[in-house]
Structure formats: C-alpha cells, structure tokens
Specification:
Length: about 140
C-alpha cells in the first residue's frame, strides 16, 4: 500500500500526465484478498481527496464481475496474467472517451470481442503471457 499511496500522490500532481500500472506476480493471487486490496486503494484515493482526479482500473487472473459466471466473456475484459492496479487520471480518460458518441460502446465492443475469441483462446493468451511464451500472442488478439 505504501507504493500505491506514493504513486497516487505522484500521479495527482497537476504537472503529471502519466498513468501507472502496478503489477505483482506473487502478492494478491487470491481474488478475495485482491478485492480487499482494491477497497483499500479506493479508500486511499478517497482519503487523499483524489476522487474525480484519479481512477482505479482493476485486473486479476481470476477476475469475475458480480452476477456473472466464471466463463462469461465480460470477465475477460478485466483479466490479466497477474494482479494489477491501473491508476489513470480522470482528465485523460475523459479526453480519450471524447471521441466516442457513446463511450459505453467501447466496453460493449470489448465484451463482444472477448466472446468472439472465446474462453479457451483467452486462457491460452494469459498462459502465454505468464510463462513468457511467444505462442504468437498476436494471433489471439
């Protein structure tokens, strides 16, 4: 949490125009523990009064949205080879979405693409990333 807190403060600087991804290959492998850490990071954002300045995007190998089945396509939009916290500046997110009439369509398009690729292909892609394999990852995306 010390690393995350320091990064939140750094990214909140008005002169900073960056994003950060904090990844761990050995911590927070249990999804429930990871989700508790997500709550802790969000609480830190609130405590530092950075709500509306910074935004947290979350990624985990076992990510599962509430109300979904383990193999549902939308879960793959937030799965990654390792647990990760992506800290973004809200202003940058808004700028990126400004080119879309319906920003929700980005998420919907991602879900559709995950469904087209299928669970087996996505699982293979994640395995290739985790094991440093060059299973021609580009063929899967």
């Amino acid at each position: 949490m010390e690393v995350v807190r320091a990064e939140l403060v750094r990214l909140a600087s008005p002169t900073c125009r960056e994003t950060s991804i904090i990844v761990t290959d050995s911590l927070l492998l249990d999804f429930d523990a990871y989700m508790q850490a997500v709550d802790d990071v969000q609480d830190t954002i609130d405590t530092l009064e950075l709500e509306g300045v910074l935004q947290l995007a979350t990624f985990h190998p076992d990510y599962q949205f509430a109300g979904t089945m383990q193999d549902d396509a939308e879960n793959w939009t937030n799965r990654s080879p390792y647990p990760a916290f992506h800290i973004l500046q809200e202003e940058e997110v808004e700028r990126a979405l400004a080119g879309y009439n319906e920003p929700q369509e980005v998420w919907e398009r991602n879900i559709k693409r995950m469904g087209e690729l299928g669970t087996a292909a996505m699982a293979q892609l994640v395995r290739a990333c985790r094991h440093g394999g060059r299973d021609d990852v580009r063929d899967h995306v």
